[in-house]
Amino acid sequence: MQQVYIRRAADFERLTAWVDKGNTPLIVTGDAGMGKSALLANWGKLYQESGRFLFWHFCEVSERGAHPVVIMQRLHESLQQRYQFNLEEKIPYSTEIMREKLDALVQQDVEPVVVIIDGLNQLDEAQGTVDWLLEALPPSIRLIVSTSKDNGLTGEVFEVQPLSDADKTQLIVDYLEQYGKVLDKEYRALMVQRHQTKNPLFLKILL
User: Which CATH number among 3.30.70.2640, 1.10.510.10, 3.40.50.300, 3.40.190.10 corresponds to the domain 9-159?
Assistant: First the structure.
């Protein structure tokens, strides 16, 4: 879990409710540094701790990680391992067969299978690549993607909101506490008043 993260209960509840009822992709959007990855990482950890299966892929980890075939290979292998299902079988390259194989794996679970693709905007190539990836995923999968730009996706949009003044104050206190430091109330108030500090990443850099 992130060392310093301001958890908003409403955000976590919305993600969990969508998993239980959603039938279209959930598109998590927001400006760079707004906390999309942090939200998904922290919620995802709690979701997994509840005993439910979740697969997530971070497209920004490496150039190879931004290739859609790699995402499908990792997902296929993770599901095979979870269900001990044809472990020697290699992932097919036909989109139609891939959907069928993944759907067969997903049907092994009574709980929704959640797939998170973080940083969808980092995927190789262009819109056609995104379309291919989404086409290869069966509708039985609960897909959550994060992106900082419009990929032309169809689904429910979840825009990560800026920090409130209360959030900023809490982040300042918690962040500095890691290093055994405290900021004077006067300077803390000045920092909270700055418009740019509504962005968590900007605020942490400032600290």
Answer: 3.40.50.300
